[in-house]
Amino acid sequence: MNIFDCIVVGAGAAGLSTSLTLGRARRNIGVFDDGSNRNRVTQESHGFITRDGTKPHEFREIGLKELEKYPSISYFNTKITEITKDIVNERFIVRTKDDEEYSTEKIVLATGVQEVFPILSVRDYYGKSIFSCPYCDGWEMRDKPLVVIAEDEEYMLHMTKLVYNWSKDLVLITNGARISEQSALELQKRNIKIMVEPVKKLIGVDGYLREVEFESGETIARSGGFVIPTFYRPISFVEQLGCEIDEKGAVVTDGMGRTTQKNIYIAGETEKVLPSSLMMSAGEGNKTAVAVNTDLTMERF
Fold first, then answer.
1. Which residues make Cβ contacts (< 8 Å) with residue 299, sequence separation at least 6?
2. Inter-axis angle of helices 278-300 and 13-24, to 10 degrees?
3. What is the mean pLDDT of residues 165-174?
4. Which of 2, 11, 152, 278 has its CA 20 to 30 A from that of 42?
5. pTM metric for this prediction
């Protein structure tokens, strides 16, 4: 059985950053990833200094290539299906879909989050002409006729006001959800049209939006837009391992990635079940790595 100081579950920005820092600290690290990262559908990644405009798969390949320099880091392109506690030896046993087993002293969960969209067909356009982060993709959509799709009034206002910085040609689509008169007036003062009627379908070609059709048959021409999804953890290791979760669904930590379960750490979007930029996730991964290495150092000194 392969034995590691730490296994990092997930090789997105958070997991790669964690692994790099721990590898440079001469720790024996196993990195596991199945290629299901959330940003794989988008054309380019933005906002990461020195890597602005890099395609997500290229960003990942560059990160994995950097890890190869450190002989103590092993990468496994597979899915972890089970993590159990070896109470006697104070370790964890990790099993993969290939029925391989690995032993580790510490675990970092960096599996990220996935989206559920208010309109199913958004998935056909997501990453090409419909996005969830204006900071990531607003520049590319600037001055185009856009939609904002949201069903919660707080999010309707927040996202519409935010996207207004990049394009003044906006239509808010609530997909049947109600919006208060006060909020509607606030947006209409900026000439932002509000469509409360449910959407029948999105119309476009090869992922690029052209029109939105409503149940009444009315259509509006749009070139893309932004959507507020619901996010969830795709893998339930947080719950299975007994990590404490607060009332908002976020994992309780000490601010350095340590969870309430000894030897289990968390990094990136997995912690709060909210989207994050590559830059922020990488920073959180670095921080968590420092916590892991500090604990290994103090426990073994």
1. none
2. 40
3. 98
4. 152
5. 0.93
Same topology for domains 2-113+233-300 and 116-227, yes or no?
yes
What per-residue confidence (pLDDT) applies to 41? 83
The identity of residue 255, as a single letter, is G
**Domain locations in the chain as residue ranges:** 2-113+233-300, 116-227
Closest CA to 11 of 72, 71, 56, 70: 56
pLDDT category of residue 283 using cuts at 50, 70 and 90: very high
Q: Rounded to an integer, what distance in angstroms lies between the CA atom of residue 295 and that of residue 17?
A: 18
Q: d(Cα 300, Cα 31) in Å, to the nearest integer?
A: 22
Q: How far is the CA of 228 from the CAs of 32, 119, 242, 276, in angstroms?
A: 29, 10, 29, 14
What pLDDT sits at residue 90? Answer: 87
Say which CATH superfamily domain 116-227 falls into: FAD/NAD(P)-binding domain (3.50.50.60)
pLDDT tens track for 98-139? 999 999 999 999 999 999 999 999 999 999 999 999 999 999
Assigned fold of 2-113+233-300: FAD/NAD(P)-binding domain (3.50.50)
Q: Which residues pair with 80 in a beta bridge?
A: 96
CB atoms within 10 A of CB 97: 11
Under DSSP, is residue 266 helix (H, G, I), strand (E, B) or coil? strand
239 CB-contact burial (10 Å; exposed 0-12 / middle 13-18 / buried 19+): exposed
